[in-house]
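To: structure desk
From: M.T.
Subject: fold request, one chain
Message: Could you run this one when you get a chance? Sequence is below, nothing fancy, just the single chain.
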Amino acid sequence: MSEILLVDDEPLMLKLLELYLVPYGFNCVSKTSGHEAVVYLQQKKAELIIMDVMMPGKDGWETTREIREFSNIPIIMVTAIRQ
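Reply: Done. Structure tokens follow.
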């Protein structure tokens, strides 16, 4: 089973993403901060990350830069930003 790491500071969004992905056979691991995501990936493996851009503390861009120092895992960025 493929593991997807979901990273978002909004628990409702994490649950929504999981609701869509689990029926397709994906195992989802949810983290609520960039720091938690980095720590998790340093210890475990995922096949894909779906990550929010706007998070308090370490945002999605900063988290991605940190992950890229040790991993080439695919990352899909999501955001509610409108321009």
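Reply (cont.): The chain has one domain: 3-78. Let me know if you need anything else for the meeting.
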